[in-house]
Amino acid sequence: MRTALSALAVLLTLASSVRAAPVAAPFEVEERDASAVLNTRFITYEDGINKRDGVEERDPSAVLNSRFITYEDTINKRDDVEERDASAVLNTRFITYEDAISKRDEVEERDPSAVLNSRFITYEDSVSKRDEVEERDPSAVLNSRFITYEDTA
């Protein structure tokens, strides 16, 4: 008797879920707000490409802050912008390896603490900074993200 009641409950649950309205597929929606497309978690790669080609003018800051920016967009924006704030370049999520190298070569003087805290520090930077700084607090060395084996030895 209990088994029959359990089976009936399962069947009723399945039947009620079948009657639920189906969700519309993304391709069925003809018009969408561009900002909504950029902000959705479930955007597809094809949507990103289509929207990129469809929008002629975009705010560069919006492009840099978009989650769904493409590699091609970063290259185009990097080439279009002639002057950039060095700190902004170091802090952008979409910085390229080439940008990090060129910015490192252009900036002659940097605060060592800023270099240690940078996300995009290179191995060469950590080695050159280590050689330039003669005295260091041992506790600071142990807490550095970019500590090397030679530093601990």
TrEMBL record:
Residues 1-20 form the signal peptide. This is Similar to An11g07040. Keywords: Signal.
